[in-house]
Design goal:
Layout lengths: L1 E3 L13 E3 L7 H11 L4 H4 L10 E5 L2 E2 L15 E6 L17
Parallel strand pairs: 1-5
Antiparallel strand pairs: 1-2, 3-4, 3-5
Amino acid sequence: MRFQIPGALREFAGGRSQIEIEHPPANLNSALGALWITCPGMRDRVVTEQGEVRQHISIFVGEENIRYTGGLATPVSSDSVISIVPAVSGGKSSANTSIPAEL
């Protein structure tokens, strides 16, 4: 199984954008446990002290958001691709936004 690591968490994954787990567990909770062994600093940024996925984090198994597939009990397999997606916020919205020519 493969974890897709977003840019905001790559410093806790040795700069890697993907992490392969060789022995796939049966559910997402077990898979995350294997990820925490490889990348222990990532745990506190993805789950709470109670082990629940943080409110500002979405996790997808394939294209399915785990909030709708059983949460941490969501089944995973050896070919699962798990994406961790932190919320994106900030910036300024404007109807007249232009990109500077020097970019």
